[in-house]
Amino acid sequence: MSTSSISMKVLLLWLLCLSSALFLFNYQHAGCIHHHEANAINSLAADKSNFMVQRKLEPPPPQQQRRTARQIVEEAFEKSYKHLIDACQKPDQSLYHCLLELHTNAPKIPPKYPWWVQTLVRDGSNILGPSGLHGKWHFKIFNTPTGPLQFCSLEKVASTEWNALKCMLDGKDPQSVGDFCLDKPQQLPPVLPKAVFLRDPLERFLSGFVDKCMMPQHRNYEPHCEPSELWAPHFITHPNQAQKRQFIPKEDDARLLREFLAMKRHFFQAYIDTYPLRWNIHFMPAALFCDGLFRNIQHYDFVGYMSGDKAKSQEYLVKFGQRYNITPVVSKIFHLDKNHNDTKQHVVMSNSGEVMKNRIGTASKKIKEYFTPYAAEKLLEFLSIDYAHKGLNLPIPDWVDDMLAQQEQ
């Protein structure tokens, strides 16, 4: 056997051994990898099993409870109106001057308060602005047989009827003198009995919206569905205003606005979101009227209420007429049934009434037509002072909590 032949055999044998060694190494190494993977998988499985056992042992997290209408009101009041009430309690300072001072010192209003508190202070301190909060027409002197009576008249609380009653007590025809029979300067006692009628804030707001925003003849020609730039782009102010404003939108904008206004709930909800940009007197809280009812309602001689319940509303009207000996005038203006039962203090609406017919309580019939849970919750926040202030004694209607419960469905 030649040397080259032996060398070739040795080389082949060496290559065979090397190949076997590499195969064995790879096999063992692969076995180690699979072994570790198996351990990892078993470990993960064990962890998952322990996790599932732990989840079974732990109680499920409690569901967040829905806030009641009362909770919404109380929380909103603390975050908004409380600062205003605390700042405007000086007996020698009018509400107007207090709001003016707050607006002048706007940076002093804590930033934790929502933005609309600042716009409320701004518009409430503008004595000539669109809010009309301090208009002299809110205070009326009723010359009753029992003596002068100072009456606090609120927009959307039968203000048309109270104006007419004022005219009749002054011996004037309401239809011939216009909407207002303003008081002339006269010598009055230093202290007068005071009276006011209140209305459910949500119902009052809806009444203002249906009247001032849903009716085109009012929305487009009266500065009440504010901001007019949004909701009445064709609006032109009354001729007696110092400056005329006219907004002429593009045709596309007008078309979009018309389509949006046709959807009642959408329009109502959007208006609630935007009306604090410029507060109007028809939508301001009742607690701010007449130099701040939140400051002085405890001194009122008579506080009546109007609501969707016609019987209760008219019961207060009867009591009011009897108290100040003006029952015939009250009955004529509000068209009360002359055959009411005095012992029960209950009256019914006269079918022949023209002024008050279908006026009291009409907004309450439209609640489901306009309100959504979102709209109800937002308005509870914006009007929280009316429900939170104990002096006004305004209960939250039962339907509000029923509507808020729909959010869970």
Automatic annotation (TrEMBL):
Protein keywords: Signal
Molecular-function annotations in GO: sulfotransferase activity
GO cellular component, as recorded: membrane
One matching Pfam family: Sulfotransfer_2
DNA-binding listed as a keyword: no
Signal peptide (from-to): 1-21
Keyword RNA-binding appears in the UniProt entry: no
Protein name (record): Sulfotransferase
Species name: Seminavis robusta
